[in-house]
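Sample intake sheet
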Amino acid sequence: MSPDEKTIQTIHTYCAQSKSRCGVVCTVRNGIFEKVEPDDSHPNACICVKGTAAPQIVYSPKRLKHPMRRTRPKGELNPGWERISWDEALKTAARELLRLRDRYGAESVIFGRPAPGGSAANDYVGWLTRLANVFGSPNILATTHICNWHKDTGSAYTYGHGIPSPDFQRTELIVIWGHNPEVSWPAHAKRIVEARRRGAKLMVIDPRKTNIAGKANLWLGVRPGTDGALALGFLHLFFTDRLIDEEFAREWTNGPFLVRMDTQELLTGEMLGWGKGYVVWDQAQGRARLLDPTKETPKRAQIDVALSGEYRVDLPGGSRTVCKPALELLRELTADYPPERVAEITWVPAEQIRLGARLLGRTKPACYYTYVGIEEHTNAMQTNRAISILYGLTGNLDVRGGNLNFPRIPTNPIGGREFLPKEKAALRLGYSERPLGPAGTTGNVQAYEVYKAILTGTPYQVKGFVFFGGNPLLSNGDSRIGREALQRLDFYLHVDMFSNPGAELAADLLLPASTCWESAALKTTFEMGESTCTHVQLRQSVISPLHESRPDIDIIFQLACRMGFGKEFWNGNTEAAFGLQLDPSGLTVEELRRRPVGITVPMPIRERKYTELDPKTGGLRGFNTMTRRLEIFSATFRKHGYDPLPMYREPAIGPVTRPDLSERFPLVLTCAKLIQFCHTQHRQIPMLRKQARDPFIEMHPQTMARLGIGDGEWVEVESLLGRVRLKAKRTEGIDPRLVSTQHGWWEPCEDLGLPGYDPFGTEGAN
């Protein structure tokens, strides 16, 4: 055996750089991190180019190497970074943050992080949330409202929970809607390919004919932002072609519940003096009857409920009200969306709409998944409602082969919500205006709310910023306003592996974070399916942190201790924190350390859990909604002044809502992610940049010919918000009325001689 072979280590771990969390094996030779490969012994074995490029990321000369403080005014091209010690950096950060808290209130400090689905932030997001809550700030800046909130949280307004996992392993049909798994979730893509090999069908709904769309049985090239109309068009055909699972609709949706036409609210037993419950119409007896959804279903109560029609119900005092079942109101709504009209709205041919609806309605079991393509529009919530109702009415919810809430090991929550007083939570930016959105549910705030508060002092002054990873200026809209806002901050602490335009512009302290390959973390679920949802892994560092960098979680714990929160952060002991998190599962850190690939905990898979009895109440479990049923008519939305049915509205800016702009802006612009990069980061990595050298805009050949643009030619692209320069890329897989690009082009790649781009100017690409 040669000397070199004696120093080779193979380390089982997982890649944290994307939503996929791929199980991988790393090779370290003579202490040098050399290679990453899929770990065939891991239930989530997979890899993408970001994982393969990990050694280049780790050893990039652009890494932040030591703590630094600004010595020149904010906004100057040269921040005058001065190297300081970790002790001084943490002491300064703690002092400044506590000063702001004492003078302006804890809400004056914003904590922020990037999207965990597209970065390694999943390793530490729970602990950063805990730090904000213990500190007393209700404000955690995130991009969840344009990334995943509607599917993961907004779906609760229909299902009572977020979108369940698609059971690719046992399905007969997969519907991928506004999701490109080959780019954003490679492990999803791998399972879809495996399902296709065993005969499952695939339908892809996406404005672009992505690679996976090219492999589908049916691709629907929908106009961006019109997905809600397409879902209503599918529902129209579900009614006319009798594709609805009527038993599920009767028993487990609030479709039979009567809605008063005079007040547009659900008719309750209390309104009639009948007690708790909702009123339905018994077709057999020809009268209204009370149904308590916490105790019974129509079948158990022997009520032949009506799902259609119009009925008159006597009210106390002798008056009458006209009522209709909620499902009838949905039918009436969808009657306005026949295939021909939907084709005009969505650009999807009417015959393809018919094919898609019938494929979904007649194939069982079927599963689906949506992602960012649905999220980034002003009508995203009602689009989510329409898709969720559509899928629910197939009867495939919470069954094998459908979308199923797979079990996960029990764990203790780590976010620390118990530390944030209710009166502080009520101060969260955007909460008073949108209590049903991220501010009132996941506890996240949007960049535009933060910028407004900094610049206007409304609703209160925001003076501090603590950001771990990410690039807030280029990951949110209106970077020019953001640029002005960040320069107004009293104190800005930025922690990252690499610097970025926002940090260079305004950060007071810049601290070097380790990569995920130099950091330990605990993963209590790998999501997705049967073999991965109960898999638990303690990720140990592949190599020790380089330079003076430290893992994000260590910095969070150390900063907490410096501010006097040692008790809430186990006096800086992260392994003790992991242990408490694991306590309910019976697993220990020591046990996981001995099993580096992780442990899959066997747990029974239960279907149709909504039909079970709730052990706490003894009543029906149902759905965790106001009516205890899958909500076709949302009483919560109605209460807060929103449409209780999934009404379709055009995007706020587009060819229909703003026809006055059509001459100046004749094309619709959409955006798409590149697998090579973590959003705006890593364009300086040669292995990654080599595959995507220049910022580009995808255009149909007809559009290029009409405008006289050649393939590879640099063009100016203008919208209402600004102008950038991009390279034209010819593609057949896009409508001639549509163009598509990406965000985040600012870093140069010196090894390849490729430039960076002005993140703010018109000659840039952002």
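Comment: The domain at 659-752 is CATH 2.40.40.20 (Barwin-like endoglucanases). The chain has a mean pLDDT of 95.
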